Amino acid sequence: MRALMLCTSLHARSFCRGAEDNTIAVARTRDWTVLSTIKAPIPKAHGRPSGDTAPFGGTPAGVNDFAIHPSMKLMVSVGKGEKCMRLWNLVTGKKAGVLNFGRELLQGVGEGKWARGEGRRVEWNTLGEEFVVAFERGCAVFGMDSKPKCRILPLPLTKIHQVHYMTLSGTDGGTKDLLAVSTEDGRILFYDTTDVVGTQITKSASKLETPISDPICQLGGAADEITGRVKDFEILKPLGSEDFIIVTGSSDGAVRLWTVDESELVDEASKSRVVNDEVSISADGDDSKANGNTTKLPTTRQIGLLLGTYEAGNRITCLKAFVMSELESYKTNGSDNGIDGKRGNELNSGDENSTSS
Fold first, then answer.
1. What DSSP string describes 231-248?
2. Distance (Å, rounded) from C-alpha 162 to C-alpha 136?
3. Residue 138 burial (CB < 10 Å; 0-12/13-18/19+)?
4. CA distances from 18 to 62, 119, 309 (A)
5. Where does the record place the region Disordered (predicted)?
6. Is 2 exposed, middle or buried (0-12, 13-18, 19+ CB in 10 A)?
7. Cβ-based burial of 53 (10 A; exposed 0-12, middle 13-18, buried ≥19)
8. 245 with 236: CB under 8 angstroms?
9. Alpha helices in 59-164 (DSSP H)
10. Where does the pLDDT of residue 230 fall: very low under 50, low under 70, confident under 90, or very high at 90 and above?
11. In contact, 135 and 162? CB cutoff 8 Å
């Protein structure tokens, strides 16, 4: 029986997909032949009530997401009902290790006592030096040693739907990665995972908490009169352009096209708008203005320009976009003496025929 696909990824000439039966299959794009299949164990049910009427084997199962290292030799996956992530050796096709999410980490990313604690999204950065695991309301960034570097909590607290890395050009000729996170309230937040708030000591024990990374800017949201959740988005950069093109898909059926200048992503307040910072948040995560136990939210710069909106008329759950490149044949025989010239000759010959007749 074929299982429902939950996530897909295209790499070079291979197509990978994660399914509801806890398998990750690798197929060849030439003829779509399945070359290999990685099977993850089905999680055991914990804490289910004795009167549960779910059928045998009906526990939540499936691969939520997976990410392949740029070297194409390592893969990280997260699944339903598992408070852990799995490392896979793609050279041998076998499991390389399992990293459990500790209680302190789950609490630090907003996972409560009754939350599933499972990873929803996972993504490597472009250099393969770190990866991010997204939970329901927060994210954790891990280094190559699989130890958490920092954590992300959007304020005000809201659900997270998608994460992507984007590459900026550095002043010294190098590159720098930013992490983009889409939220339930229609925003895309941009984080510099190398710039974090200092570590704090927990109240219950003298252990160091994972530092928090604050957003440097945001796109969309209430400041742009957008409140619908951003289920998916893609970040594109046309060749030779200094502007990023961001395509977002929302649950209200709207596909929006944004442009963001690369200079706006630099942490300088003079290069973009600033959101009003009069909103405060209470200790339990609810917005409040008249509560003594509240703290003022930090200001977040608003960036980006909305180019256009397309109403699909249906709920959007996933989205993919890419930059189209010109064919070499069109470049050499295109506008000069190719397609345009051919059309012109056809029109001229047609006029001559009509005149002679």
1. EEEEEE--TT-SEEEEEE
2. 10
3. buried
4. 8, 14, 31
5. 332-357
6. exposed
7. exposed
8. yes
9. 103-108
10. very high
11. no
Cα 148 to Cα 101, 134, 168, 201: the distances in Å are 10, 13, 23, 16
pTM of the model: 0.79
How far apart are the C-alpha atoms of 16 and 25, rounded to whole Å?
6
pLDDT of residue 7: 87
| Closest by CA position to 77, among listed 37, 86, 133 | 86
* Element of type H or E holding 97: strand 94-100
Tokens of 304: 């980006």
Beta carbons within 10 angstroms of residue 145's beta carbon: 7
Phi, psi of 328 (to 5 degrees): -60, -35
The 10s digit of each residue's pLDDT in 41-52 is 887 766 555 555
Phi/psi class of residue 289: alpha, beta or left (left: φ > 0; alpha: ψ in -120 to 50)?
A: alpha
Of 163, 317, 143, which Cα lies nearest the Cα of 234? 163
242-277 per-residue burial string, b: 16 or more CB within 10 A, e: under 16: ebbbbbbbbeeebbbbbebbeebbeeeeeebeebee
CB-hemisphere CA count at 13 Å for 247? 12
Q: CA-to-CA distance for 259 and 284, rounded, in angstroms? A: 35
